[in-house]
Specification:
It contains 13 helices and 16 strands. It is an alpha/beta fold and 450 residues long. The chain has a domain at 255-414: Leucine-rich repeat, LRR (right-handed beta-alpha superhelix), CATH 3.80.10. The strands form 2 sheets. The chain has a 14-stranded mixed β-sheet with strand order 1-2-3-4-5-6-7-8-9-10-11-12-13-16. It starts with 5 loop residues before the first helix and ends in a 12-residue tail after the last helix.
């Protein structure tokens, strides 16, 4: 390790800090060389974690000061955990009263924070903190014209209480960040937003547990229509089955390019949100897909499609079989735990009437990922008829040996050798990922790596 160039060592340290925000401190205590490399490369200090309630306020200020000093001009991603702090009183400035020096320090350096993640046990505490570290009207003060927070994630650790279906609380905290382009709400009450507050919002993610009250579709549409620049939408929640709004009422919905839905009542919501601009679609049905054959609701330009949790009943199979045959620009297809073998068969059939310029349905398809025993039976036929496809099959859950040991899940792939799928390098990489997953560390979810 000591023979590596400082630039390469710094890049390794940067990857370490992506998985553990406190990695710069740990690596800096290894040796003098490690400390010099870590403290001379600002990109290593791009993530800061503060846990209020664990230690004194002075310790948190000293830690934050070290990060702000070493990160230089690099944008900083900050996580603040306030679940162990005292509950807020009726005074909205409880955070400023309990942590006055930390509030002053964060206000002074707020222009350097690019992304902010808040973990709190109540929405009230989270938004009181946001109000405390910013001014009441940042747009009217030239001192805060550099306030450039682009990403805000709020995660609530307690259960969402029951509430009236039409109730949408308005949190003024969202108006404090006019440049916000990414908003993720985990276990958070769906707020009411007005267009000036989220004018530049491009990414919106709503994640709620299955035990939370269902979200009315009208409430979701009202929130989405307030973000004219929205291009990616992710909804993971139960949806209530109230009557759908008039199609003319959602004519002002933004033109989405990426849509991820893990919901019930999937057909009706998809019909409302899909548009001709959609390129990437991920669907997970929480109950059962019951649709009728018809148009594709503007999915003709779709490039990526992932389907999961859909039962293989005859009506569902016929519907998706019809859909696959009418996606001419599809490039990537993922079928997880899907019992509809007709979908895979459609990829090996020739359109009628015969057109030599087309050859197969989905002519631009380059990658197919399948799972389930039924899919394995069709895997070889698919690869033989379309050899240019990169086909991957996932065997499902880990296999339990008679000795009680868990073996990694089986993944087969028909691809070239080297460093790609099915190579020795790929096998070892998947083994490492499985080991980390068993330890509770996700290598693909940046929010869980704090």
């Amino acid at each position: 390790m000591c023979s590596l160039p400082p630039e390469l060592l710094a890049e390794i340290f940067q990857y370490c800090s992506a998985y553990n925000a406190d990695a710069p401190l740990l690596l800096g205590s290894v040796s003098r060389q490690f400390r010099e490399v870590a403290h001379s490369h600002p990109s290593v200090w791009h993530k800061l974690r503060l846990r209020l309630g664990f230690g004194t306020e002075l310790a948190q200020i000293q830690k934050a000061g070290l990060w702000f000093k070493n990160c230089g001009a690099c944008p900083l991603n900050v996580l603040m955990n306030i679940t162990n702090t005292c509950p807020p009183t009726s005074d909205e400035e409880w955070f400023a009263h309990n942590y006055p020096f930390l509030v002053a320090f964060l206000r002074k350096n707020m222009h350097s924070i690019h992304a902010l993640t808040l973990q709190s046990d109540t929405e009230l505490k989270a938004h009181h903190l946001l109000d405390a570290i910013t001014t009441s009207s940042p747009l009217s003060s030239p001192e805060h014209e550099a306030l450039q927070l682009h990403s805000l994630h709020i995660q609530i650790t307690t259960d969402i209480p029951p509430m009236p279906s039409g109730w949408s609380p308005v949190f003024d905290s969202f108006s404090l960040f006019p440049q916000l382009d990414s908003l993720k709400l985990i276990n958070h009450i769906l707020p009411g937003l007005t267009p000036p507050n989220i004018l530049h919002l491009q990414n919106l993610s709503i994640v709620r547990p299955l035990t939370a009250p269902p979200l009315p579709s009208l409430k979701i549409l009202r929130m989405i229509s307030s973000a004219p620049s929205l291009i990616h939408l992710d909804i993971d929640s139960r949806i209530s089955g109230e009557p759908l709004p008039d199609p003319n009422s959602h004519a002002e919905l933004p033109a989405l390019k990426s849509l991820s839905l893990r919901i019930n009542n999937l057909p009706s919501i998809l019909k409302l949100l899909a548009s001709a601009s959609l390129e990437k679609l991920r669907l997970t049905d929480l109950d059962d897909l019951r649709t009728k054959d018809g148009d594709l609701c503007g999915l003709n330009f779709l490039k990526s499609l992932e389907i999961a949790g859909i039962h293989g009943v005859e009506s569902t199979s016929a519907h998706w079989d019809w859909c696959i045959r009418h996606l001419p620009r599809l490039e990537s297809l993922t079928l997880n735990n899907l019992g509809c073998v007709n979908i895979v068969k459609a990829l090996t059939e020739t359109p009628e009437p015969l057109d030599s310029r087309v050859g197969f349905y989905c002519p631009m398809l380059s990658h197919v990922s399948l799972s389930g025993v039924d899919a394995l039976l069709l895997l070889q036929d698919l690869k033989m008829k379309r050899p240019s496809l990169r086909v991957e099959w996932d065997g499902g859950a880990p296999v339990m040996h008679h000795s009680g040991r868990d073996y990694p899940r089986t993944v087969l792939s028909y691809t070239a050798g080297g460093y790609g799928f099915a190579s020795l390098f790929d096998h070892e990489r998947r083994h490492v990922e499985n080991v980390w997953m068993k330890k509770g560390v996700s290598l693909s979810d940046e929010d869980s790596s704090w």
